[in-house]
Amino acid sequence: MEQPSSKSTSLLSLPPEIQTQILSHLVSSFGKPSIHAVLRTCKQLYEIALPLSVHVFRNAAPFSDGGGPCSRARNVQFLRYIVISKPELAIHVKTLLLGRVSSENDTPMHIKDIAQPQDVKCTKKELSVYQQAIEDVLDRLNYDGDRKWSAEWVEDLSKGCSDAQVALIMLLCPNIQTLMFEQATKPRQFIRLLQMVGSLNSQKPPPGKLNINQPSIPLSKVEDVFHEATEFEEGYQMFHEQGPVIFHLPRLRFYEGNLLYGDMVAAEKFDRLQPGCSPVEEIALRISTIAGPTLKSILKACKALKKFEYTHNSFIKDYNQLTPREILEALLLHSETLEDVRVNMHEEMDKGWEWQDHPECLYMGTRLSQLRSLKTLTVSCQCLTGILAGPPENHGFNGRPMPLQIEGAPSLIECLPESLESLKILGCGEEIWETATELLRTVEQGVRFTKLTYICFLFNKWLMKSKIDLHCYSPHVRLEIGYQKQGFYQFDLGPPISETETRREHNATSRIYAPDARKYYLGIREAAVFPKSAYEPRPDPYDFEE
């Protein structure tokens, strides 16, 4: 009997929706996107792939530089493409990944601008089109700001300012969802655009006027923001200008900043936001210097925070840096919604806190138990218990040595919330044995902390005289004891790293300049069982090609 032949299905025979889903996997934020090759296959796939080809606009310095200016020529090329040649594509731009922008000529220049200096400025005809586009958007938004703005914007475009170019891309691409950028140098139009967005998002529209949540407001669909500085000893000095506006974006869900510097000026500006106005759910302040009032102002602006991460930056000496108690006071604003908290205070370094009159500021305390929804807690030892593994560097440089153990500090079982499922304590020393043992015996009894299934104590190996005896006989709990080398301890803070001899030092957590190192870092940080080295240099598989 003759078997019926199975009908083969080719990509060309699939419905356009399925073709789009398949080809979307060829879109990449790093490297030369494979989707561009599809454009040269056939007319049918060209029409499917064309919108996908602009989903990501990456314009940053080469990875080997670890930071630097974006290419002005590349900005000009992209603007010409999505505004003049194929304006229907502007709505398909979803991700902007940008290097440093400036209102001045960058030095050193991007390698592309050095090779093509004639291409860094727009033509007079293009400038006329862009000015009309700017004025059309401002009129549609009923924006009552400076009406000379469009002329000043176009003047900066005529000079080839990357600041003006990038701001125009943000203005004319209404469906941007992910925004990643390096700290700008003397931004002008970029800042004014953010200020306009903030102003529009803070207004209550009169009847019949524009609804502030409509996507016609620039950046109104942004859900994910990452920005960073690249100089560890200076930090992100413009956080006070950009942070409050970013937090007011109506669809923001994920926020991450590297090397942020949040002083009292930032606190004042965040305080101007309406409490609970920000929809952000996850915040990561990595390697940052934040004042206590600033953190509280930031979290006060959030409606319902679910995840929070803070890593202390010891490269900047600032006496206004927040204490563990101030961190807790800010977190308690979201006691009903916070599920995941990660705090690493770099306790190997003395902060110079004025703790003498208030030693309780050196640990979070019993009110931590009021975080009723908390499931995962990863925290450095003194921050939770008041116990240091050993004398920190610069111990007592402010005239009073920091105590290795705070008298009267509460035990672990007094501080931890009953909702906790996972607990990891970093930078432990031998003195934690008593309170750790009390916790483990309590868990074994099965009356308290019934949801806790994972406990890890990470000890500073270089300070330990011998291994410590800790065990838990509860069948429902996995206990891990790790003895961390000093190199891994430093690596957990997200420090500057070098992958090769020819590559500039960069941040291990950078989403712009270190995607491979970041993936490795997030996979092994604070591990109880360690690989051979904190970071193994390797060729980056995402090396970007123009």
Automatic annotation (TrEMBL):
Pfam families named among the record's database cross-references: LRR_15 (PF24969)
Domain Leucine-rich repeat: 128-440
Protein name: Leucine-rich repeat domain-containing protein
Annotated source species: Clonostachys rhizophaga
